[in-house]
User: What shape does this take?
Amino acid sequence: MKELLRKYRSDTLTPAELQRLRQMLAHTPDEALAPLLYTDFDRHTPAEMPADVKARILNRILNPAATRRRTTLLQWAAGIAALIAIALTTTLLTTTPHTGSDTQFSITTPPGQTARVSLPDGSAVHLGPASTLTSTSNRSIDFSGQGYFEITTDPGHPFSITTAGMTVTVTGTEFNIDTNTNPAQSQVYLLKGSVQLTCSTGTANLQPGQIATLTDGHLSVAEATAADANLLGWHTGVLTFDQTPLAHVLTTLGQHYHCNIDTTALPRRNFSGTIPADNLNVALGTIELVYGITLTAQ
Amino acid sequence: MNTSPIDEPLLIARLKAGQVDAFRQIYNLYSDPIYSYALQITKNTDTAQDIVQEVFMRLWENRRSLLHTHPLRPYLFGIARNSLISAYRKVVNSALYEEYLRQNHADTGGAQAPGPDSMLTLKELQARISHIIQSLPPSQQAVVRLRFDHNLTNTEIARQLDLSEQTVKNRLVMAMKTIRQHLNTAIAIATTITSLLQPTL
Assistant: This one.
């Protein structure tokens, strides 16, 4: 058996020996096979991994989010094509450096793709799908779309973000801005620290766990509920539901993936659990599986 | 691979503390040996790379629960164990591998191990076979595809295509005859080119 394994590894089995190995393997349980395989495990190095593959695997392990970004669009596109016909506008990820200044640049993400952006002052932004960030100076940006901001502390120099209808001023904090989900609304969801919001009708100071919503120039502040965690779904990679009616779950999915889902013929059931926020195919597959229903693409 | 003495317990302790350079060091030590072994078992570069990725991904994810008194080698093997065993069983039982060995064997007259230069990889063989299959009559194509791509037995193919087992056998024999003819021509040409190139190298 050991000899046959050695010959197998070097592809020098004769056809007759292969037949013998097949018969022996059929009668050998995994438990007996494992020690044989272990004997020669990693002992010698006749083959090397290509350097680029080696680096890619290491990078994928150490920066899982960064690599997810690269594959999301492909998976997403495949899922969409199979399930739902959707008009997909493709804006390429563009970085346009303005001449003359190091701190001025603009980044736009295409639908379905996110990006992590490091700003010159050390702050970091996780840019959601179909979002645009334009740096206007070292500590200020123009922004539209969805973004999860981690702003570095610099007491003398507050960071300011100008977005549809309001300005967000911060010292050092983490929060989410969303002007995409509902085009008529701009939302700021504060997780850590504090921010000040300024719009034409007034100002508001947000505390952690609060959400500010700007609708038609009217600014309101409310405590975030469990359901609001899904506002961060694009950032965390999962959507979470607790005893939520199925129709509502699919509406949330539709909003998240920017497609229309017809929820009229659904069973009246509640759903609890998490659904991936970065792969519509898997997301809908999960629901089909749990409820034994079929969702059709149109 | 063991060129300089390595303080493995210390390396594991640093990995447990989340030190990325300790992880890199372990990766650089073990990735090629694991890859080359996985390649010999799976006969497929993609699968071997997947195994390496799985091994180190799990090592990184579970770094906090590692015991620095326990050597890494059996731990890493433990992660790869199931993938290796199932790949081993799958390849040994595949019709493609059988054909691959037959080609190698015929090539060297069964005398000695084939030289790495004249040897087809399993992947190349698969590519060539699927290319040749396209030129076969449709009735033979279906049978050969089920045999090579889905690794079904004659009985299973007969059931699936609603044919008699003898018909399946006949079509397979005819198809294999054509495939081997084409393959041998291709290999003969490859070998000639290799031997022509040899003196100039």
